[in-house]
Amino acid sequence: MLVEKNICGCRVLHGIVDDELNRVAPLVSIIVPIYNAALTLEKCVSSLFVQTYKNVEIILVNNGSIDDSLELCRKLASLDNRILVLDLVEKGVSVARNKGVEIASGEYVTFVDADDWIDSNVCEIFAELNEKHHYDLFCYSAKYHKGKKLVDSFLFLENAEFFDENQKKELQIKVFAPNAPILKYKTNTRFAGSACGKFYKREVLLKNHLRFATETIISEDVLFNTLALDHFHRIGFTRKCFYHYEQQEGSAQNRYRPNSNRYFSFVIDKIQSWLRESSKSTDFVDAANSLFVHYLFGILKEDLCHKDNPQLMADRKVMLKRILADETFLTPLENARKNYFSFPECVLLWLLQKRLVCIIFFLLKFVR
Question: Which fold has domain 3-247?
Answer without folding.
Answer: Spore Coat Polysaccharide Biosynthesis Protein SpsA; Chain A (3.90.550)
